[in-house]
C-alpha cells in the first residue's frame, strides 16, 4: 500500500524531499514557559488551490503550469499540474454536511471489526472504540480465556479499577486508544507484514455511499470509457505533530486507475515530489473537503504530509466547529485532528 525508500537515514537527510519535510515539519521555539510555542514557518511557496479557485472564478486567470478542466463534477473546476501528469486537485469537492458525515463514519464505523486498525497487533479486534471513548470506558485485559479468544474487553472505569486492584491486569482508556488511532482499512484488507492485499482476511465491502462518492470523484482521472471500482481504502488519522513520510502507493495492479484521497478536518501541507526522492517536491495546502486524485505517472511520484495545523489561525475548521457544536466529543477530536480517506481499485 505504501512503499518508503530504504536508503539510510544519512542519505535520506540530503534528498530534496527530506529537506522539504524538515522545512514544513512542526518544531517548537526554545522557551522556559510551560506552553510550547510553534516555530514560524515560511509558507510563501505553498500552493493554495483555494486562492487559485477564487482567482479563476473572478477573472479566469491561472498561475503558470496549472490548468483547469470541467468534468461534469458538480460543475466544479478540477485543477491539474502540467509537470505531474495524472495529478488532479478538486478544492472544496465535499460540502460541509458531507465532510461531517464522513468524519462521523471515520470515527464510529470505519474502525469497527472486521476492519483492521493499528490497534489489532496489540489488542486484537477492538469494537465500538468511539462509543467507549465517549462513555469513559476502559479496555481491560481479561484473566484467562473466555473461549472466544478475546483477551481485551471494554468495561466501566470503576469495574476496571476493581478488577485490576491487587493483580497485574493491564488496561488502557478508550479515550487514549481513540487518540492513538492512526489507520483503519476498509474493503479488501492490506497485510502490512507481507506488504500485499490478503483476500482471505475477513472484510466487509466498502459502504455503498462511499463507493458512489469515490466513483464520482474519480471521473476526471479515469481512462476514457472506464469506471472506477472501489475495492479497498485506508483511513489515516493525524494528531498534533503527526506526519506521513514520503512514500509511493504501489500495491495496486493497475496504476492507470486513480487513488481518490479525501481530506477532512484540520488543514495540512501535502508534498508532491517526482519519481526520485531528490526531485524537488511541490508543497500545497489541503483543507477539509478537498480531494486529490493520483493516476498514471502521478502514481510514481513520492508524496507525504509533513504538517497539520491545529491553531485557530491556520486550521480553518470554523464551519466544522459550528456543525459539531452540540457533539462535544466530535468537536474536541476535530479541533486537533485531520482524517484522510484514500480509496483504491486493487485489481
From TrEMBL:
Domain of life: Eukaryota
KW Metal-binding (keyword) present: yes
Gene Ontology molecular function terms on file: broad specificity oxidative DNA demethylase activity; ferrous iron binding; oxidative RNA demethylase activity
Keyword terms: Dioxygenase, Iron, Metal-binding, Oxidoreductase
InterPro entries linked: Alkb, AlkB-like, AlkB-like_sf, Oxoglu/Fe-dep_dioxygenase_dom
Any GO BP annotation: oxidative RNA demethylation
GO cellular component: cytoplasm
Family of this protein: Belongs to the alkB family.
Name the record gives this protein: Fe2OG dioxygenase domain-containing protein
Organism: Linum trigynum
Organism lineage: Eukaryota, Viridiplantae, Streptophyta, Embryophyta, Tracheophyta
